[in-house]
Amino acid sequence: MSPRPTVLAVLLCLAGGASAQDLATTCRIASTYDLTVRPDALVFDRAEPAPRTVRMHDGALATDGRPVALRPDEQDRVALFERQVRVLVPKAKAIANDGVDIAARAVRDEAATAAPQAVASGELDRVLNGRVADIKRRIATSQSTRDWQEDAMRAYAQEIVGDVAPLFANEVGGEAMQLAMNGDLQGAAALRDRVATVSTGGQARVVARVEAALRPRIQALCPSIRELQELQSGLRDSSGRPLNLIESGE
């Protein structure tokens, strides 16, 4: 299994096209684990290789269900690792929430070009606001980074697009038909071209806006994540293998 950019970097993939590899290079950190933040423990898990499960709580460490014997200084590092992760999680969720808002605003701006009547009527805002609220609820209640990884972020973006696409189709289709029926074939063609431009270039513009807004905040968290990498240094699993929850990115 190849290391993925850590969850804090993957947040920039919200709009579905941000380069995860580029972000791994920016922070130079990655992980093959998913993280579940439970009230009683941090649980890291992956399909392979071993250790497949790593559990931390209050200075105690277990891998694949077996406790790891730790020196007092190692217990302190495990406890500090857990504490710092719990501090970072709400910051990550805040970035994710803001990313949803930025993506929604960018979609609205694109819609103002392709379907201005839907914007003017308030229908687009109603649909967008409902979807944004739903996604934010899911982020707020989530305990697992699986809900923040690239695939999840793409799914959220697709949900937003899926909600607004019918509005585009209804307005543009009706307007184009009316123009054609009135004999304005050139106007109908121009309308289709305008929509095609939004469809082909809109996603890239949304991605660019999300990246530009969130990248500095992601970079600001990179030192904290590197500190986690330093805290795990020297720790080993129950079989004596080095514990690499966070790795250096390619």
Automatic annotation (TrEMBL):
Keyword Signal: yes
Signal peptide: 1-20
One Pfam family here: DUF2884
UniProt keyword list: Signal
InterPro entries, A to Z: DUF2884
Protein name: YggN family protein
